[in-house]
Amino acid sequence: MDGCPSTPLFTFGVIADIQYADLEDGFNYSRTRKRFYRSSLQLLKNAQRSWAESAVRPEFILQLGDIIDGFNKGHGASERALDTVLREFSVPAEVHHVWGNHEFYNFSRSALLRSRLNSSALHRDRDLSGDVYAYSFSPAPGFTFVVLDAYDVSLLGREPSSEQYGQAMDLIKLYNNNDDLNCPPVLEGLQQRFTMFNGGFGQEQLDWLHALLTASDDKRDRVTIVSHIPVHPGSTDPICLAWNYEELLAVIRAHSSVVCYMAGHSHDGGYCQDKDTGVHHVTIDGVIETPPDSDAFSTVSVYADRMVLKGEGRVEDRVFLFPS
Q: How far is it, in rounded angstroms, from Cα 74 to Cα 311?
């Protein structure tokens, strides 16, 4: 960390894919990976304790989606499970909740907008439609964070009569002819992403992001984008990639202000630096597939020229130098 002052400008915590349920351990959809439903709550408590005891407490927490597991819905336990998890966010810091596929397994979009998982209330942008869950906030002068809605165009959480649902069905059917749309259409390659548990970014949201980044370019702000689904093929298993990742990457690449894109969804995590722009794409390892004797969270310290991610357990330490 040569050249870094000892005290960061600010710090923040990051955690992804908690997927808590009051159930015995189980397996993922393809039954190849073990999932630790109950102990995910203890791993959240470990993260909260670490953040609370930090010499520099985080200004905010990024919860990158899938806070409770979809199995709760079938047990009539969605509200109870959500209450259980939210009680553990005890650090006195604002929590920014991202929405993933498991939020939509448990709740409708309209219910989420009315819920405690809607953290946009203080940051709402009137240029966006009311049900697109995207907003920005600035924790310090010169720094902007943008939360994006990766299920804007989706078969999850959208009414079948809606324009977004129709767009999603038309798109997925171009590539996936399976009866079960959660089954990938191919076994290898980027086309695996056309499954029902993924989604995409609508044109209105892309236009809004472009306008926001244009203003950030002019101000020479450092922008970090966060969403549930990764958008760079180098940062994730291709089965967990956003449907229209190329469109979002094109917006990012058209602007100088973006320094980092953070996501969850792919439980093994991932990282790459875009060779054209220098933007860092990091996918945070999922709590749900982390054994009880380990951890999966991180604390990020932000300096004038870099962000330093200190990982715990499965999450690797990383330094993100800002593109010049």
A: 34
